[in-house]
Amino acid sequence: MNPSNPPQAAEYGGDEVSAIVLDPGYSTTRAGFAGEDAPKSLVPTYYGKYNADGQEKLIFGDDVFVTPRPALSVHNPVGKDGIVEDWDMAEKVWEYSFTSRLTGAKPGNPFQNGLNDISNDELPTEMEVESDEKPLADSPLLMTEPGWNPAKAREKTIEIAMEKWGTPAFYLARSGVLAAFASGKASALVVDIGASNISITPVHDGMILKRGVQHSPLGGDYISSQIRALFKSNSPQPITITPHYLISSKTAVEAGQAPQAKYKTFPAEKAPDASYRSLLEERTLSEFKECVVQVWPGPNKLSATGPTGVSNEETARTWPGRPFEFPDGYNQVFGVDRFRVVESLFDVKAAIPDPDSPFPAPTSSQTIPELIKGALSGVDVDIRPHLLANVVVTGASSLLYGFTDRLNHELMQLFPGPRVRISAPGNTAERRFGSWIGGSILASLGTFHQMWISKKEYEEHGPNIVEKRCK
Amino acid sequence: MSLASGVSIDDQCITEFNNFRMSHGKTKFIIYKISDNKKNVVVDEVGHDQDYEVFRTRLEAAADSNGKPAPRYAVYDVEYDLGGGEGKRSKIIFISWVPSDTPTLWSMIYASTREVLKNALNIATSIHADDKSDIEWKAVLAEASGGKAGK
Fold first, then answer.
1. Disulfide engineering: A48 pairs with which of A64, A84, A254, B79, CB 3.0-4.6 Å?
2. CA of A155, closest CA in chain B: separation in Å?
3. Matching SUPFAM superfamilies, A to Z (chain A) (predicted)?
């Protein structure tokens, strides 16, 4: 059996639709068959562009990381605020996410693919050819979107799904609602820590409360920029991240000693663009976040003084450090610095200044506690206690060690009266793919058929139907 | 229309609820569940015992076919005394019970069907519970009375 075939209908309880669920993020795009536990296709939303034989070529998926081609540049169709900027390219990246591993390539022209060759010269008199079969002609499509996605973008999305991909049925679900539902809650305060954004989405009775939705750019990429700032002023020596493709060999060195590696060099005309290097550096930074970075768990800020009169920084300094080895062999143990790179998500004064960073210094209204305050002040006072008792944490960057402990302390300090309760799936996949999994379950239910916007309804009412049906 | 599972509400859910309303306190609660084939909400149990603890025990004991704790919906007739000679009041409260270790599949289905059932029964007062402390009498009483009773 072709592995890209969807599971048979019987495999999920007699429900007949084998829909595709597409959860597009800034850093990665997740796609897979409804009813499965995790997205089968996880591709970078970044794509590569280069010239060969005077023609512009594009690279999608993990292939973008593989070969440092001359002048290869890396782009992202999604803007820093999580909203699509380049629709043509977003369509291509998203399409790649499901055609590469789920639906397969479009079938070739049956006149030319060799399967219909007839041994004698006799040709059938008439043959209908669907020459441009669309990639989703047989699959309903459920997509997710951030709570602040504007109406224009929503309409554009259904237009692509219906007209370019030919899906017979479509639904657009708010990722905050999906994350709340996946935790069993119809009302919740959803705290989503993504790559380009952190967002707070109040959900009440299954609806997002738009006036309360808050977001800011202090997500995973911002944390990377803080780590870079730390590396510049690192002691015993500043750290340069050299991605693997620039290293031909390395020798083990003692901790804190200068790296001894042989480097690959590219002459200017053969070198990839700086954006390529920066994307590959980001991979090392991701590893650094997973292995080293830690959130000061609280109570109180890292800069505060604990109950015994010892500053929290001093306390953190006494904890064992964490070692990390860079691609060039440089390695060191990171002590209290590993807390400093994320502290500004909670305390704006703790931001490590870096004049060269693409991120302007954060403002106090962008921190997580302030966003939560803003979200709650935008909703009815009666439902605030319900939201605080049902805080749902999702997003890959929320997996930072110590994050939920700190969030809990911050919330209890901000709102000493009502009961605060955080639910965060312990399972890594559920935290990374929370919205996708929620969409996967819904779209696999036989009863969900009444929610879908059918092709016929789309043709009758136009793209604006998404505003009426997907609230 | 907000995002929902499309799971439908069995007519008997409404019929039993109307009987419950007309019973003037004789019926104390109804427990609802989603059928194993995930197609509709059905009545699991109608209870007449006046002791809240009986209801709470029944709700907490709800289990799936493998004997694991399972989610439920419930309606309960909360009677309370306002004190100061204001007399007795009663209010029907809607409860969604999704224990925190419920598998994601069922969490998702129960959460995305909740509003449809609550609206079909037309109940304004509701609580969501995922921890046993959420369905203690004190918590239910406080929500039903709008904080006026049980202080």
1. A64
2. 17
3. Actin-like ATPase domain (SSF53067)
Is B107–A181 a contact, with Cβ atoms under 8 angstroms apart?
A: yes
For residue B127, the chain A residue with the least C-alpha distance is A386
Partner-chain contact B112 A186, CB within 8 Å: yes
Distance, CA of A4 to CA of A428 (rounded, Å): 25
Q: Classify A220-429 by CATH class.
A: alpha beta
CB proximity B1 to A under 8 Å: yes
Does residue A442 belong to the interface with chain B, where contact is any CB pair within 8 Å? yes
User: Token pair for residue B75?
Assistant: 């309606």
User: Can you count the helices (H) and strands (E) in chain B?
Assistant: 5, 6
Contact of A387 with chain B, judged by CB distance below 8 Å, is answered with no
H/E element holding A225? helix A220-232
Count CA atoms closer than 13 A to A386's CA, side-chain side: 20
Q: Could you give the CA distance from residue B117 to residue B122 in angstroms, rounded to a whole number?
A: 8
Which residues have C-beta within 8 Å of that of residue A96, sequence separation ≥ 6? Answer: A43, A60, A61
Looking at chain B, which residue has its C-alpha nearest residue A426? B101
Of B106, B112, B131, the CB nearest to A442: B112
How many C-beta atoms lie closer than 10 Å to residue A419's C-beta?
12
CA dist., res. A213 & res. A456, Å (int) = 33
Task: Determine contact: A466 vs chain B, CB below 8 A.
Answer: no
Q: What is the CATH number of domain A9-44+91-104+134-177+432-469?
A: 3.30.420.40
Cβ contact (<8 Å) for A182 and B110? no
Domain boundaries, chain A: 9-44+91-104+134-177+432-469, 220-429
Contacts of A468 in chain B (CB under 8 A): 1
Distance between CA A376 and CA A371 in Å, rounded?
9
Q: Report the chain B residue with the minimal C-alpha distance to residue A34.
A: B105
B100: chain A residues, CB-CB within 8 Å: 184, 423
What is the C-alpha to C-alpha distance for residues A78 and A194, in angstroms, rounded to an integer?
13
**Chain A residues whose beta carbon lies within 8 Å of the beta carbon of residue B38:** 13, 445-447
A57 CB within 8 Å of a chain B CB: no
Specify the pTM: 0.91
Among candidate residues A192, A231, A227, the one with its CA nearest the CA of residue A213: A192
Helix, strand, coil: what percent of chain A each, to 5? 35, 20, 45
Among the partner-chain residues B2, B102, B109, the one whose CB lies closest to the CB of A207 is B2
